[in-house]
Specification:
Blueprint (H helix, E strand, L loop, with lengths): L18 H15 L3 E11 L6 E6 L4 E6 L1 H4 L11 E11 L4 E11 L2 H17 L17 E6 L4 H13 L3 E6 L7 H14 L11 E6 L13 H9 L4 E5 L7 H5 L2 E2 L3 H8 L3 H36 L3 H40 L2 H21 L2 H47 L1 H5 L5 E4 L2 E2 L3 H6 L2 E6 L2 E6 H5 L17
Parallel strand pairs: 3-5, 6-7, 6-8, 8-9, 9-10
Antiparallel strand pairs: 1-2, 1-4, 2-3, 4-5, 11-12, 11-13, 13-14
Helix pairs in contact: 4-8, 5-6
Length: 495
Amino acid sequence: MSDLIDDPQEGGNAPEFSVSDLSGAIKRMIEGEFSHVRVRGELGRISRPRSGHIYLDLKDDSAVLAGIIWKGVATRLAVQPEEGMEVVATGRLTTFPGQSRYQIIIEDMKPAGMGALMAMLEKRKAALAAEGLFAPERKQALPYLPEIIGVVTSPSGAVIRDILHRLRDRFPRKVLIWPVAVQGDKCAPEVARAIRGFNAMTPGGALPRPDLIIVARGGGSVEDLWGFNEEIVVRAAAESAIPLISAVGHETDTTLIDFASDKRAPTPTAAAELAVPVRMDLLAWVEGQGARLSHALSQGVRLRGQRLRDLARALPRAEVLLDGPRQRLDALGERLPAALIRSVQVRRVHLSETAGALRPALLRRAVEGDRRRLQATAARLNVHALNRDIAQKRRDLDQVSARLSDVAGRQVRGWQDRLAALERLRETLGYKATLSRGYAVVRGDGAVMTTRAAAAGAAALQIEFADGVLDVSGSSAAAPKPKPKTPPAGQGSLF
């Protein structure tokens, strides 16, 4: 019964903190001292939940620092974090009291150097190549003369003008332009969306589906061209069902989309040259082929005419070829009238035999038989038979309903018996049952009195019996009590 009595303990003079107060004080101190820091380290564990935030670890050879990039900052990063990349992160330190740890809230992140950027590029290239995205057997042949060419590029740059000018000079074709950002954080998703958008067009729809796609961009630094190294762009290029030409940067620039595309062009102008042939060269070639074809046809006709005349001299005359067939035709013409007369006689006899079997009496017997069968069928389909069937189905339904009622009643009675047993158990385990055997509970000043000294010091007492509660004043409690009777044998004490 020690839990019913206060047991104060002596304390020292040291101030008492709650866990929340102490965590808050540490949080304020760390955020005040390290409100702006730059940390260099290698990216370890990276997690991207559905919320869009990025959780990662910054580590070196002896320590690990947890980091968070909120969703709004993650979308603005020029280079997306990848495990193993060495970066310089700028942000502020804070704490997470829920797990008693400190962490950095990253506001900007850049690769630690060109070497790290190239190392990351090579690592990504090796991983995508291992998946087979750069395999030569995936490459598609370019159409010789596409009707419609889709161009994925910036609509305001010089690239699109160079492509249109080259196409106009070589062989004018219809061009669909999908405007995208060619650098920055929006570059990769917009380029991937454009490639997949061209592939999603329906052939023969309101907007025609291109026969060839050109992804083009002018030259720039590695950072400017980084959007074309992103995995989402490489996968979109590899999945394209439409043949794709990549023309990103100058001739010395190489991006990962160049390996996934069906054809790489060193410049956007070269991409236009790969897309279509020279119209004048094609016309000259067609004219030359036409002249050769005309000469070949005339020569072939002349040779075959001579061959035909040679073969005709070896054939017999037409009169000789027709003598035999003419004689057979005359013989058959003489036999035809007699054969027709015999055929008509045979058919007249057959008709007479058949008409003899079709007498009215036979027809009446057949009709009568069909009428009897119809009446027998109608007798089986009367109302009484249907009523008997309905009555049987109703009896079956009543039997099923009775069985369901019995089952439900038994289940309810079982639940009632179980509830009564639990009520008896509750009464048995409660202290009320103990009071019915002659015991009582003494309370004073709102607490249970377990000793005589405690009861004597109480201002008022309250005694609970089995049949009710009795209030006793303090003076009555202090009076000497008569000697209690010896409890009967076998009855223990409550206190």
